[in-house]
Specification:
- The strands form four sheets. This protein has a six-stranded mixed beta sheet with strand order 2-10-9-4-5-6. It has a five-stranded mixed beta sheet with strand order 12-19-18-14-15, with no helix packed on it.
- The chain folds into two domains: about 20-120, Immunoglobulin-like (Sandwich); about 125-220, Immunoglobulin-like (Sandwich), CATH 2.60.40.
- It is rod-shaped and about 80 Å long.
- A hairpin with a 2-residue loop joins strand 4 and strand 5 (about 55-60).
- With about 220 residues, it is mainly beta.
- It is about 5% helix and about 55% strand.
- About 25% of the residues are buried.
Length: about 220
């Protein structure tokens, strides 16, 4: 029997006049980083419970503070003259943490929730660092992204300018453990030496991951 369940039944006969003033907001983070959620309640609260996908992960009791049962779920508290804010901190986030994060006061219909999206930054590579081509020769440059969640958006650039999407084809596939792969093939007929960059992006990345190849143009008559 969970401690919060016992307290919940004990409190049923009391008419506490408190409410959730503001609940958590949606968050998107990279796997392995922290995720933080705030829940602010008015004074008079007795117990506050944080749930992840319906499972209690941390309980805060007014009279004694936070009851932490896992190192991955901790909290910080902030108090003003008329409110109390509990900040849930999820450490070393995992793909399986994605889902509903709920703040509940165990008062009927008195809860607030948000959604956590944990994303995985996989690998990105182009097999060759340099490629030499001759005049009028069409080449295919292959960029491979492995182990991402969700599947990344792939774009290409040449000498810092975006390449039109009609010049490359990207295929996505399901990997293992809920991860995704992407394979992008750029087709071009170079007329000069240029640096090609493949970029992979997901929402949680501050900047896209990139891989580059230098295509060296050589005149066939030389």
């Amino acid at each position: 029997v969970y401690l919060q369940d016992v307290i919940f039944f004990f409190l049923l006969g009391f008419g506490f006049c408190y409410s959730v003033i503001s609940g958590p907001t949606n968050a998107t983070v990279l796997a392995g980083s922290e995720a933080r959620f705030n829940c602010t309640v008015s004074l008079g609260w007795v117990i506050l419970i944080w749930l992840s996908n319906g499972n209690p992960v941390l309980t805060v009791i007014n009279s004694q503070g936070a009851v932490e049962t896992s190192d991955r779920f901790t909290s910080q508290n902030y108090t003003t003259s008329d409110t109390f804010t509990s900040e849930l901190i999820i450490h070393n986030t995992q793909l399986s943490d994605s889902g509903k994060i709920e703040c509940s006061t165990q008062k009927q219909n008195e809860s607030s929730f948000a959604f956590l999206s944990v994303q995985v930054n996989g690998s990105l590579f182009i097999k060759n660092n340099t490629l030499t081509v001759t005049e009028n020769k069409t080449v295919e440059i292959v960029c491979e992204a492995l182990g991402w969640a969700p599947a990344p958006d792939i774009t290409w650039m040449t000498n810092d300018s975006l390449i039109d999407k009609s010049r490359y084809v990207t295929q996505q596939s399901q990997g293992s453990n809920g991860l995704h792969n992407a394979l992008s093939i750029l087709t071009l007929t170079p007329t000069d030496t240029e640096v090609l960059t493949c970029l992979a992006d997901i929402e949680a990345l501050p900047n896209p991951q990139n891989a580059t190849v230098t295509v060296i143009f050589g005149n066939s008559t030389i």
